[in-house]
Amino acid sequence: MGTVTPLRTKEETFYPGVVEAPRFSCALGGAYMSTLATFGAVPILHSGAGCGMSQNFGQNFGAGLNGAGPNGNTSTPCSCLVEEHAVFGGEEKLRDLIKTTTELVRGSLYAVISGCVPALIGDDVGAVVKEYRGGAPVIHVNTAGFIGNSYKGYEQYLEAVIDQLLTPQPVVRKRVNILGIVPYQHVFWKGNLQTIKNLLEKIGVQANMIFTENDGLEALQSIPSAELNLVFSPWSGINPARKLEEKFGTPFVVIPSVPVGPKDTSAFLRFLVRRLQLRRTRVEKVIAAEEHRAYRFTEYMADIAMMALPHAYTAIVADTGTAIGLTRYGSNELGWLPEVVVVTDDPPEEYREEIINHLTEGLESAVKPQVHFEIDSHKIRLLLREHTLQLVLASSLEKHIAVDELSAMQVSVAFPVYDRLIVDRTYAGYRGGLALMEDVAYKYGGPL
Ligand code: SF4
Fold first, then answer.
1. Residue nearest to atom 8 of ligand 1 (CA)
2. I want to staple 294 with a disulfide (CB 3.0 to 4.6 A). Which of 43, 103, 262, 440 is the partner?
3. CATH code at position 334
4. Could you tell me the residue range of the domain that residue 92 belongs to?
């Protein structure tokens, strides 16, 4: 048998010139989706027409087949800049666009989101926006796409809100803001936010989840009244939390992931007892009742979990927070063996060592995962091929490698997800682990 000549050298295979199927959009995309997630807010794009259209399907549809709401996609006002504006500037067109939008589209807040073109030609978008102060608030989010990715855009949106909209408020005891859960990009964002809010309500803490609240403007304006900001990510959301600390003196704490399952959820609530000085007996009563229910119901799924996936070798390919939450739950509560974790949200270098610690320390399994930071689908495919796996929790992009090449089960849990509808599904909280097992067992298809 002759030798097979590889189509690419090893170097070319590992360092292709382009990123294949990236797992986020640009900063404009993140700010655009955050605006749409603020109920009642209207985005106004100051960019080329393609910038907005590329988010249609690119961002919201990739977040579990979600629609973008009444002000998204083709309903979004856009200055649609062309060559003429690159030469003569686009400020005049933006003036007309803000004027007609505020007249024709009802909104409680207008967010002018500027992309690469106005940044390159030097439009003074901030000055134009200032002309429209007086009616419903108009803010400017400067998101030249080349500044960063969607996670950066989420932070820039919140930072624009902090700088241009928020004023000091009396601090309300036992009130917190939920930060770090990025709309659409974290595909379970709606369910995660609501679950955390409901959980905190049970222990007497009022949580402002900001996004999906019925009055988005009020939710934003009440941010400075919180006693504490909770950032549910080791990195995304930390910049706005710092800004809130500087401007309003609100301290923040970093929770590495949305807690999945009883162990991490109880640990999170006990942490809040200390941090917010809550009545321990009340919280312990809630924990006891919730744990009892969660473990009682775990008994219903125990047999199929043992038959289908006893100590399953698992790969997790997801954004940082999702990867940490699922790795810990699978390892500490289901006995899965976390073989490899690929972090796909491109966290800044300075946070990576800490993220590796979160993914490898405090696990009860004998296996500690190999941790990679990678956004390129081709390279992720090559990484997964190096392992023998039974379960792959990943994006839709890994579906075929998992099922066809590795003969593993695959569940889509991270962006992009386009093979399942995610409305308020969540793996957060006491019931979250059960929901995950329901989804995994559905892929297994039963013992026969
Ligand atoms: S990277 Fe720039 S040009 Fe491309 S979609 Fe984003 S804002 Fe528009």
1. 51
2. 262
3. 3.40.50.1980
4. 27-164
